[in-house]
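Expect chain and fold; thus:
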Amino acid sequence: MSRLLAVPLIALALLLAACGDDDSDNSDDAEPAAESAAPSDESEDDPSDKAGNGGGDQSQPAEKPAKPGTEITVSSSQFGEVIFDGDNQAIYLFDKETDSKPQCYGGCAEAWPPVLTKGEPEATGDANEKLLGTTRRDDGTTQVTYAGQPLYYYAHEEPGQVLCHNVSGFGGLWLVLDANGDALS
């Protein structure tokens, strides 16, 4: 019976958790978050690599096609047209960062995972290719930038949601940005 109560209580706690509610400024105190903390644009399982996919020599690994970098696009939200990734996940900037060097690590990066890429990021729709770039994180991963700003997700949002615009946390504001790279107020 207690197990049946635990699941709804955990779900309720997650729903009540506020965006970036940790206002501590400990972004430099902890080790960088693992790359797995961010939603990934690459899948570990490629159905074409599975055995029994139509015969052929099973002793040689199947070649995987080159995967493009993280896709950045523009979509509608309650705040107007803002940037999202190719999976319709909202993207934010951290106004504490005044250049392309990320300052969000440790607990900050757990709540606000960086938008990472394995290849060159790609602009689609109304996103501006000229504003896309990358920066190297302390752990060696590559983070996407837009208009020179490192980009982040909020860890507790579903695709299409923009729950944490203009939220204070970790010593700064988290803001969505438009296709021109301007933070919305």
